[in-house]
Amino acid sequence: MSSESKPVRSEEDVQFAHIKFSTQIIKRLGEELNPSFDQSILELVKNSYDADALKCTVVLKNVTELGGSIEVEDTGDGMDGNGIRNGWLVLGQSHKSLQKLSRLERISAGSKGLGRLAALRMGNMASVTSIPYIDPLSKYSLVIDWDVFDNAALVEEVQLPINHTSPEKNEKVGTKIVISGLRQSISERDVKKIARGLILLSDPFDDDPKAFKPTLKAPEFKQLEVLVAKRYFDDADYHLVASINNLGQAEAKILDYRGEVLFSADHVDIIGKDKAKIYHCPATEFNLWAFLLNATTFSTRSTTIGEVREWLNEFGGVHLYENGLRVNPYGNSGNDWLDLNLSRARSPEERPSTNTSIGKVTVKDSKGLLSQKTDRSGFIENEVFHQIKLFCYDALEWMAKKRIEQAEIRRQKERVASGTISQVKKEDVKKLISELPVETRVSFEKTFKAYEKSQEKVVKNLKSEVQLYRTLSTAGITAATFSHESSGNPIKIITITISSLEKRIKNKLGSDFDEVFAKPISMIRNAIESLAVLGTTTLKLLAHDKRRPVKLDVHKVIHDIVDTFDPFLKGRNINLQLELADGNPFLRGTEASVESVITNLLNNSIVALERSPVGQRIIKIRTTVSATSMEILVSDNGPGIKDINIRDIWLPGQSTNPNGTGLGLTIVRDAVIDLGGESSAQVTSELGGAEISIKLPILGIA
Amino acid sequence: MTSNLTQISKIRVIDDTDSGRDALGLVVEDANFTLEEQSSSIYNLDLYLQECKENVDAIVSDHHLRRQSNYFPVDGAEFVSRCYQTRIPSLLVTKFESVEVAEFRRYRKYIPVILKPAEYNEDTLIAALEKSINEFKGNFESDRKSWRTLIRIEDVDPNNPQNFYAIVPAWNSREAIALNLELLPPEFSNLVKPEARFYAQVNIGTEKGNELFFSNWEL
C-alpha cells in the first residue's frame, strides 16, 4: 500500500457542507410574501414585461371556487432550459441589470423571484411552458407539484425535470404559466382589483404603441377597459405638468383643457422660500388633472358629471410609475400618498381631492435609487423617495396658490354678474313652463309667480338689511372715533377745571362755599358724568375681548350694562327695576352678543318712554332660571307695541320711531339665535308697555 | 395745603393741546408748585429727558401726545415710564380705557400711578409724586411689589394671535388677564398656547387687573 492511500490528516483533507433549506421555508415565504391575488398575479405579469412581451393575457378559470386555476400567457422572449434552471427557478437573485436596457429598451422591473414564488404557491400545482425567441423550434416545460415539496424535508431533495419537446403548430414564442388547484377562491372584488391592477400597470394614459398591454379575460376587465379608454382628460379644468430634470431643478405649468398654458413656474417659484434647494432624485414628471365637478362647468359639455365621476372613482388618485411600470399601492383607492385630501381639508378652496383628480408621477430610475419593499407594499421610504414626494407637494402648493388667485378674480366678477345670472335662470324656467301642456301650465305659472314675489321680498329685505348694517357700522365707527376725542379732551378739561375751581372758591370763601357754589358745581359734575358715559359706552361696546366666546355670567352682563346706563336713565327720570333670579346663570357665548340683546332692548324702552306722557317712567328687567335655560323679560310702562304688526317688529327697517333705524330688534333676534335661544314679544305687560322675552339655553348656575 | 415734598418745587406739564396743559396746570398751581408748560415740540426723547432732569423736579403728563402733529415723539405712558427710569417723579393723567390696558401694561412697571381726570387734584398729585420718590428709594407699597409667580395661559385670541389671556392664580384664579406677546421675550412667543405655564415677576398685591405688570419671564 502506498503512503498516498493511507488516511493521513493533511491541509487538503477538508469536508464541505452547504446550508440547506427546509421546504418549510418555501411555504413560509409563499404565504408571507403574498399580499393579495392582484399583487401576486401582477408579479407574473411584470416578468412578462421584463421578457419584452407586448401582450400578456391572464385567464381565470373557475376561480370563484376552491381548486380553480390561473393562466398567464405572454408573447415575450421565452426561456430555454438554462433560462428556466438558472433564472426562473432561482429565488432571491436579482438578475436585473438596470443599466442595460432590454431589446425593447425597457428597464427591468427586476423581480427577485420572491413575488413569483408567492404567485406560484397560490395553487397546489404550477407549470411553466416556454418557447424561446432564440430557439423557436424548442419548447421547454416544467411542473411543480407543491405537495411533493411539502412531503420532503429539504428543498434540494425534490427533483424538477425540464422537458424539451417541439412546439405544436399553433404555439408561438413566449411563456405560459398555469397555476392550478387554487388554495383560495377569488371573489368578484378581487377580480376587479386584478383587472384594475393590470390596466394601470403600464401607463394606460399614454398613447405609446410599443406599450405593454396586459389583459384579463373577464367581463370585469372589459368594463374597466372600456372605461379606461374613455380618457376624460379633456374634461379636466386644470392640468398640472411639473417636472424635475437631471440636475434636480423643477419647472411647472398649468394648462387649461385645450392645452393652453395658464401659468408657468420656474424652479424658484416652485420651491418657495428655500432658494438653495434642489431636488435630490432622478428625473421625474408629475401630471395632475383636476376637475371641477359641478353642474355649471359641465352644463356646456358633451360628457356628464356622472361619467367623469365614475371614471375618477375607478382610476383617480396619483399613480406612481417607476421605469414604465406602476408601483403598488400609490394611487390605490384609499391611498392618498400626497395627502391631497388632508391639504384640502386644511384649506378647501381650490384644492383637488382624490375624488376630483387623477394623476401620475413617472420616475426614470435607471440607477436603481428607488427600491421596493420585498412584500411589494411600496417603496422603502428613503431620501430619494422623500425628495420625489417633496417635489410633488411643492408643485401642488404652487398650483393651489395660482388657483386661489384666479378664484379671487372670479369671485369679484361673480359678485357683479350674479344679478344677471339669476335673471337668465328665471327666464329659462319661464320658458320651460311655457312649453308645458295647458292643464299643468296654469298652475305652474301661478306657483312660480308666487315664488317670484316672495323671493323679491326676501331680496329686498336683505338689501335693506345690508344697507342698514353698513350705515350703522359707519355711525358706530364715527362715534367710536369721537368718543375717544370727547372723553380724551374736552371732558377731561372740564373735569379737572371743576376740581380746581372748587378748590379755589373754597380757599376764597371758606364756609360760604357750600351755601352758594356746592349745588351748581355738583350739577356740572353730574352733567359731565353723563356726557362721559356717551363716550365710554361706545368704546366699551367695541372692546374686542367681548367678541371672544367665554363662559359668560348673564347676570353680571346685565348689571354692567345697567351701571353704564345709570347716568342716562337718571337724566331721563327713568326708574330701572332689576328683578334677577337667585344665582348666576352662565352660558358659553360672547359678551358682545348678550350685550347687544340687553342694550338694544333698553334703547327701545327708553325711546318708547320718551314718546309717552307717563309720570314715573319704569323699565323692568326680570330673569327666571331653570336648570337648563333662563328667560330675560324686559318691559316698560310706555305705550306698548302700537301702529305695527307684532310679527313685523323683528324685521329690519321696521320702526315706529321716525328717527330710528329699525334694526335694534333685528339685532336682538339674530344675537339670540346665535346664542341658541328664542325671542318673542307681548304687546302689553303688567307695567302697561311692551314686554320682550328672551329665552336662552344655559350651561348651569354658579 | 402745601406740599410736604421739599425736593419738588417746579413741575412741568405735558399735553398736546393748550387747554389740556392749562387744565393739568391748574392743579399744579393749586398745590403751590411752580408750573411750567411744555408748549414747544419735542423731537429727541433722550435729550429731552436729560433736560427735564436738569431743569424740573417732576412731570405731569397726558397719555395722548401725538394727536396734534409733531408735538411729542412718544405717547404719555412710554414717556412717564422713561421719566421714572431717569428718576424724575412723574404722573400720568388719562382716562383708562380697556382698549389701552394692554398698551399701558407694557410700561406699568415704571408707572407707579395713573390718575383719571376726575381723580386728579392737589392731594392725589402729591400722593402720586411721593409714591414715585419712595419707589426710587426702594420703598414699594404692597400693590407695587413684584413676586415670582405662576402664570397659566388660558386662551389665545383667534382674531389676533398677538393677544392672549392668562390666569395668575396667586392674584386671582378666576379673572383672565389680557396680555400681549410683546411682554414676553421673543423666544417664548411660540410657546404661548392654552394650558402653557410660565413664571414671571408680578405685583400680585394689587387689587385691579389693569395695574398688574409682568417682568422676568421664565419657563
Q: What can you tell me about this protein's structure?
A:
Chain A is α+β, with helices and mostly antiparallel strands and 702 residues long. Helix content of chain A is 43%, strand content 19%. Chain A has 4 domains: 23-225, Heat Shock Protein 90; 231-408, Ribosomal Protein S5, domain 2; 436-542; 545-701, Heat Shock Protein 90. A 7-stranded mixed β-sheet of chain A has the order 5-4-3-6-2-1-7. A 7-stranded mixed β-sheet of chain A has the order 10-9-8-11-14-12-13. In chain A, a hairpin with a 5-residue loop joins strand 9 (250-255) and strand 10. The mean pLDDT of chain A is 83. Chain B has 2 domains: 10-139, Response regulator (Rossmann fold); 144-218, OB fold (Dihydrolipoamide Acetyltransferase, E2P). Helices cover 26% and strands 26% of the residues of chain B. Chain B contains 5 helices and 10 strands. Chain B has helices spanning 18-30, 45-55, 76-85, 98-105, 122-136; strands at 10-14, 34-37, 58-62, 90-93, 114-115, 147-156, 163-168, 172-180, 197-202, 214-218. In chain B, strand 6 and strand 7 (163-168) form a beta hairpin. Chain B starts with 9 loop residues before the first strand and ends with a strand. Classes of the chains: A alpha+beta (702), B alpha/beta (219).
Give the helix/strand layout:
The complex is a heterodimer of chains A (702) and B (219).
Chain A: H1 23-32, H2 37-50, E1 55-61, E2 69-74, H3 81-88, H4 114-120, E3 123-131, E4 139-145, H5 146-151, E5 162-165, E6 174-182, H6 188-201, E7 213-217, H7 219-229, E8 238-244, E9 250-255, E10 261-265, H8 267-271, E11 284-290, H9 295-298, H10 305-315, E12 317-322, E13 325-326, H11 340-346, E14 357-363, H12 383-434, H13 438-488, H14 490-509, H15 512-516, H16 518-542, E15 549-553, H17 554-571, E16 574-579, E17 585-590, H18 591-610, E18 617-625, E19 629-636, H19 664-674, E20 678-682, E21 691-697, E22 700-701
Parallel strand pairs in A: 1-7, 12-14, 16-18
Antiparallel strand pairs in A: 1-2, 2-6, 3-4, 3-6, 4-5, 8-9, 8-11, 9-10, 11-14, 12-13, 15-17, 17-22, 18-19, 19-21, 20-21
Helix pairs in contact in A: 1-4, 2-4, 2-6, 6-7, 13-16, 14-16, 16-17, 17-18, 18-19
Chain B: E1 10-14, H1 18-30, E2 34-37, H2 45-55, E3 58-62, H3 76-85, E4 90-93, H4 98-105, E5 114-115, H5 122-136, E6 147-156, E7 163-168, E8 172-180, E9 197-202, E10 214-218
Parallel strand pairs in B: 1-2, 1-3, 3-4, 4-5
Antiparallel strand pairs in B: 6-7, 6-9, 7-8, 9-10
